[in-house]
Amino acid sequence: MTNRNKTIAFYLGAFIFISELSFGIWMTHWNHFIPGDAISRVANAYYVLFSRNPHLGAIGFVWNPLPSLLMLPIILFSRWVPQLASEGIAGIIVTAFFAAGASFHLFRCFIKHKQQLVFSLFVVLLFAFNPFIFLYGSNGMSEILFIYFLIFCLTALLDWLDPENGTIPMIMMGFSLALAFFTRYESIIFGVGLALSLTLINWFSKRHEEGSGRLYWYQKWEATELIVLLPAIYSGIVWFVLNWSIMGDGFFFLRSNYSNLAQSEGLSKNPTIGPVIGDFSNVLIFVVERSLPFLIPFLAILIIRTLRRQLFKIDFLCLILLIMSIPIMQTMMLYRGASYGWLRFFAYPMPIVFAWLPYELQKLKELARPLYVLGGCITLILLSTSAFAIGLVMNNQRLAPEEYEAIHYKESPTYSADRLAAQIAHDLDTLLKDNPNTSILVDSFNGFRIILTMKQSGRLVITSDLDFEKSLKHPVGEKIDYILVPKPEGVAALNAVNQQYKNFYNNGEDFAQLDKQYGDSWRLYQVVNSK
């Protein structure tokens, strides 16, 4: 890129970062809305630094650790700016940075593939301010990090298709896939699609190379797959070993009480997911309904390929493989009742198409300029149409309950939970202030909002503390004074207190009597004779 284009790219990234950060802070600070999954990732970083037993293992072994790891340097400053933790602003800073990074990288890719400056800016702005991308760049969730790594991986793949670029693009693919694994588990099925794509490209290109015998092809294929996949494979092994050595089960992330599989056990009673489980036709309808708005940009590539008369080519087949990899995984999980089917699970084809577009447009430009102008206009129209359609779907409570909550935040359970958490945190802080030796046990699986909002959270006995399990089983002997427990409905039934003591929320135990109730969601029990 020229110095001028580098400057434009920098200011573009800075503008998007400031826009995302401003919107995210407005939502969480003034409107008291931040998704539970987002604030829980901030909490995981917080426990590492400020719990009773600070240690890196407190980051957790269920969800991929990279988002929380990236928040650690920011959380250090929460001693002076508590809102970084209590309002999840640390997570918003990270997602705003990656949203800006994805846009910056896309812009560079368009310029590298000889697209005009103004056109490149329009396309990147349509990406950055697509309602879905903008929301997830500002809310602290892991999706935008994963999207960044997908874009980086795809652009590296396109660079690899040019033989002049050597092995560097393969190395970039490998590391982006490894980082994607530490962000979201969908990277596994995407990695399978990428491995198949590399196999197909190598196989169909061998006839055009000298010395392209079977042995030569095998060696080239083997080297390519090893370079690209080994970083991700090693990452998976490291994650397995950490789960095994610390939690006692290499698959703790998959089958613990807090895992996605455990949380989805009750989905058969869910009015949206229940009718889908085990019914393949209903699963397909469910997936197509939510995927279509994100697939509209793919029509641009389909039209460009038709204009070029290059529809039935191996690189196009690879693109379809990559686009369909994650939706296929979601289809299987929905059929088995192992997925909540959130709209965000179906969004990944869109960034894949955005990353692939510069390659297609460059090929069209080299073929005929009038066709290129036509293809560019069609692309802008379809990208705009997709953004509009996605906005409509996000405002549909049936299709997009999470996004609908964000739009109608004042009416959402998340807003109510935030306000209730603030009340509970204030009461617990007062209790600890008036009784300096008091000990309160709370499972951070459900209590993360309360913990982050408290000023004296370092005095709580929480899940990551080394003595939590012992304190849970023997609260009197371990001198626990209070136990905070959520109503055992939905995922709250997996709370460690509810798992250890059946019907504790309703009746307590011989050693515990009800001290205070908070709405219809939480109860604080006092442990009697604990001293």
From TrEMBL:
Tagged with keyword Transmembrane: yes
Residue spans crossing the bilayer: 7-26, 56-77, 89-110, 117-138, 144-161, 188-205, 226-246, 283-304, 316-335, 341-359, 371-394
Keywords, sorted A to Z: Membrane, Transmembrane, Transmembrane helix
Protein name per UniProt: Glycosyltransferase RgtA/B/C/D-like domain-containing protein
Organism, scientific name: Sporolactobacillus terrae
